[in-house]
Amino acid sequence: MFKRTKVTDGTATGQGPDAENWDGKEVGFRKKSKVPGVMITQYIEKLPEGKSHPDFTRKPIALTIQEGKFAFFKAIVTGDPKPTVVWSRNNGDVSDPARYQSKYDPNSNEHTFEMPHVKPDQADTYKCFAKNEYGQAMVTVVLNVIEVGFKMTKAPQQQAEVANCNFKKVLKRRSKVVPKAEEPEKKEGEIDPKFWELLMSADKKDYERICAEFGVTDFRWMLKKLNEMKREREEEQAEFVKNLSDLKPIHINADGTASFELEFDLLDPSSSIYLYKDGEMIPYTKELGDKMKHCLRKVGRKYIFSMRDLMPEDAGFYQLDVEDVNMFSTDFKMVDFLVKIQEVKAMEREDAVFECVISAPLSKLMWFGKNMPLEQGDKYDIEVSEDKLIHRLVVKDCMVVDKGIYAACAGIKSCNAWLVVEADKGAPKGKKTARKTTRAGGSGTDLQKVAQEQQQILDKEREERKEKIKAAREAAAEAAAAEEPEKTADSGAGKDKGAAVKVERIDKTSVAATTTVAGDSGSGHSAGKASGGAKQDGSHADAGGGHSAGKASGGARKDGSIADAGGHSAGKASGGAKQDGSHADAGGHSAGKASGGAKQDGSPADAGGGHSAGKASGGAKQDGSHADAGGGHSAGKASGGAKQDGSHADAGGGHSAGKASGGAKQDGSHADAGGGHSAGKASGGAKQDGSHADAGGGHSAGKASGGAKQDGSHADAGGGHSAGKASGGAKQDGSHADAGGGHSAGKASGGAKQDGSHADAGGGHSAEEASGGSRQDGSLADAGGGHSAGKASGGAKQDGSLADAGGGHSAEEASGGARQDEPLADAGGEPGITSGLSDIHAIRGQPAELTVKMNTDCDGAWFKDGEPLKSGGGISITKDANIHKLTIHSCRDTDSGLLRFVSGDLSTEGRITVGDVPEFDEDDLHKFSKPVIVRVGQNAAFKMPFQPQESLTVSWFKDGTELKDGGGVKIVREPNHSRLLLRDCLRSDSGEIKIQLKNPFGAVEATSQLIVLDRPGPPEGPVETVETTSSVIEIKWNPPKDDGGSAVTNYIIERQERGHSLWTKLGDVSAEKTSFRDRNVTHGKKYSYRIYAENPQGLSDSLETADSIMAGIMILSGPPGKPKVVSTSKTCINLTWTPPEDDKGVPIIGYQVEKRKKDTNQWLALNAINEPIEDVNYAVKDVTEGAEYEFRVSAINESGAGDASPPSAMACAKNPNMRPCFKDPEDFLVVRAGNSVRVKISYEAEPPPHITWLKDDEPIAPWINVINTEGMSQLVIPSSKRSDSAIYTIKAKNSVGEAFFDVEVRVTDEPKCPGPVELEQTVYGKVAVSWVPSPDQELDDRLYYVVSQHDSNTRMWKTVADRLFANTYTAHNILPGIEYHFRVYAKNDMGLSDPSQSPTWGANSNRVPISSNGVSSMEISFERPPSILVPLKVHTPPKGYQLYMTCAVRGCPTPNVSWYLNNTCINSDKNYYITNSCGVCSMYILRVRENDGGEYRVVAVNSLGKAECSTKLTVRD
Fold first, then answer.
1. How far apart are CA 560 and CA 526, in angstroms?
2. CB distance 1320 to 1327 below 8 Å
3. pLDDT (tens digit, 9 = 90+) per residue, 581-615?
4. Structure pTM?
5. CA pair distance 269, 139, nearest whole angstrom
6. Fewest CB within a 10 Å sphere: which of 29, 334, 1027, 1511?
7. How far is CA 1028 from CA 661, 1020, 1024, 1104, 1111, in A?
């Protein structure tokens, strides 16, 4: 009996759940999960019925992600009772809710562990625990984070770690291939480390090519060195993988992606796999292959790395590492076409050639014909020159079906051209012509010359590398010879044969190079980090502790700025370049952040500790502003635009901030001399503020989404607040605020606010809120305490009125509905609330104000969630007469709650909710803004990531119209992104695509463009004739209305000569020219033209001339001779005429015939002008019997039809009188008795004759039917009998004469067989055969007999006599000892009768019986037991073939034969066809299967015994 081993959970401290609920000390039993990698511990040996321990049905998947992105793991667990799920990590805790969030979706039963804005220190091994009372399940998952950018704090930290001997954290993975940004200066002749990496992953057949590419000529040294490196590499690889095989270099697939493959088994499934390009780590995904550019998929043992959306910058050196060991290296090269393939015109059965020249040697191009890949074969020849630069495709034996577009692809580069196949006019119709030996096509240029020039360039580069290597090796050899032996041994440990080959491992996670420049007279630092580029810093640091930092990814940084004393200048850019020439302030900070653009700052900063910050995404920041002289802050943030600031900030502690999305900031305003604040915030757009704050703590705020804010206003001199909010538009404020405590507020959604008004001089409030419109205010407010408020949704408010001078109130409010304040109550009435509180949404960091209006002046109190509120802590409570206000200066999350105002017994309440307007990531916004370009019929996809939020509404729009899911539109909404798919796009689908994120706090939008490419529309007509002469025709047209989304490149002109069906291409003209001169014309001929517009997507439909255009003037021929009537009939009138006497010198190509019916005036043409009658006679068949016609003829030349001839004489369409005659009648007819008899006789006669039928010269019986029609007569006997056999005579008679014709009709049936047959020998060797006549002999005089003979030698029946009308026959050559049989048949027109069989003749038929003389003789018995005459043979057929197996058996009585396979009877098995014919036993198998093999046995049994034989059947594969 086996005993289960009890184990304990081995989770280390800090890795598992907390100690209160997950002590990790339960004892249990190990269980196996269906999902690999899941460890299950069951606490009890036997589970109760219906209960189960936890298990994972979907486990988290390892993730490699870029720093700052949204990382998450998903898992689905099962178990009864429902398990509790807890997440943990190996090195650290996950208790910080800002960094780690655990969620559960009850609908999908998914547990999600989210990490917003993931950081490098979160890279770790994470564990997921699922536990219930019966057990727990645990699974681990690895998160790899790719660091982006240079961290200022990292360098000191690393130095400290080195000082503390903590080398484990300092060491990083490094590659033998150095990134270009960190590549040290190569020594003369030094070999690139890529050379060895490529060799270790390449096939031996590629060694020579790689050595030639890197200029290595010493193959023996190379092989020795390579073998040593391979042994070292294999030892390193063996620590992590096994069975490394099937290394396939990177290549381009047919779907436009690139991929490389390899197979191996990981010794530790949790080992990390890294991908590098040119020494830099690249992010990839294992699960979401369609979401990222790079993907690494595992299929069994095979690992497949793939890239999509290939671009030229994707070329490079790719490596795959497991932990720190390289497994595979491959080089991805991009080649270009020096000479592209050209259009080919070929005749049928001719070969067509496409040829091109590429910039680098390539063994094979991918050829496509009509969107199908082409391979070498009977139809296509693919040729490559010796230098692998010239490539050719030969389409052999071209047919019309081969025409179409052919393309050559080299990586992501391709070129295409048309193959036009023209029919061979000279080929005889109905016959296949012989294949031509000529070739059509070619590039039309000297390909060999182009290839030689390119080869010379490549050879020159290769020779230069060889010379450098040779010189370096010689120098190394001389240096080695000069050194002492001991020194040589020490220093040569890492070298081979003196080769200066230096292989280093560099940090693959680092994406930039850092340089430090010398400062001026202080400790200034200038740092820059770039990925893929270079940093050049020529700046002078400031004189005291200032830092100038710039970060750029993918670009270059040039810094020529002069920093001042103690200031910090920082700039961050992703994907672009930072150029900073600004002068920072003395003690201030100047920061600029840009994504995808450049920052240039040339502004002189102020003299005090001011801060100037600017953020831009996708654009450029230029700051030429002068900051304030004392502690002021100037901040500007812009996404997608540019910031230009030329403003002068105030002189004391003022703050000027501007934030905008999608716009630009231009500020030329002057601020005043107080500590005012100017703040502006925008979500999704640009913030730009150049306003001047007031002199006494005033605030000026502006919010804009999607637009720009320009503020050139002068703020008031004391404590005033000026606020402006706009969503989707721009705010321009040039107003002068009041001089004391006044508030000016304006809110607009979707429009612009322009305020040039002068506010009142004391405590007045001017507020205006509008959604979707604009406000222009030029009014003068009152001089004391007045309030003017207006709120409108969807319109515009324009106020030019003068408010009163007292305490009047004017209010207007509308939000989703209409709310307007009630009029003021009487001063002596009951206290009441005229305007109460309502629910509002406030933006985090922005001020919020709640107002309650009473009808009388009375006190009140404010409460939040039941707690009383007082002024302080960011909250101000004021009372102005009957108006009570609660102001929150900067909203925070803690300010959310239920606010209540109480005044005596009266109260009103409203809820305030604090949150943020949705935002887009700047990188995602930049990617989304790029246009999506597709072809007609393709699908267009848009994707926009965003941060998960509650109450978020996502809407998609096209040209301002909201899109709904359904039809060709597919909208997918996920928690962190949304996708839009437009299927089967049409040209009309081009336009603006917009996504909108909306929550109660606001909305943000991002726009992109959809461009659908198609063939252009046809050129605009009509085609105008500019000039026509005897030698030139010039035509003109207009460009097409729709160019298909891409510009028209040229126009193609074709011509058709009148009277011909073939269109000929004349040439093409550029898109700028919309006219064409045809100089190859013949005088007098007419031509039609059609014009095509062409763009990169193909040809448009044609524009064709409405009428033919004649070259020169029209010259018509003279009239032909008068037509003559040759003959007439009721269906045809034959005419003839003579050619015209004067053809005016122009050849005649044919004639046109016209007819006119008697008593009418209209002439009708019998043939078209483009279908001339070439002869001088014509048969007019379009006539009506009995009608009279006259005819005329016109001669046709290249100019058209000339004058008509005189009309002919009247001709009547009728037949001439004629004697009846019969047309091809049949004189004999045989019919089977019982069938109907139908005799058809056709005749001609005029006038119609009288028809009479006779039977044997007697009138026919009444049941015989006669059917007469025009030109034919039929005699019909419905059901014939033998007595209907006779000679039938037809008689046709008219006024001209008469005619007779006889038809013999024989009604018969198959004859009856003859009577008994008798045989008699008259002389030796002859036998007389006689028989009784058939009963039908007297009824059928055409009956005769056929005799067949059979003998025992040949065992075949053969006819020995035919067409015998007698009843006897003499057979010859009858030999003794042979048995003979005879058959006699009766035969007539219907066929043979059954045979009459003769008795046997021969052998013992003439033997004389021998008398026994009384002695009784014994009876002879032929009975015998079965025996095998021919046994079975051995067979070994292949699988799927047919098989015959035979043997011969004898026995009397006839034995019963059975077949057995492996002792199982197969007589009734339908898979075997078994026969027994005269003792020959056969078995047939149609298709041999594997289970048909074995021992076959045949058993024959009768009453006297048993016999059997056997054999074996072996089935081969």
1. 11
2. yes
3. 333 333 333 333 333 333 334 333 333 333 333 33
4. 0.30
5. 13
6. 1027
7. 62, 21, 11, 17, 6
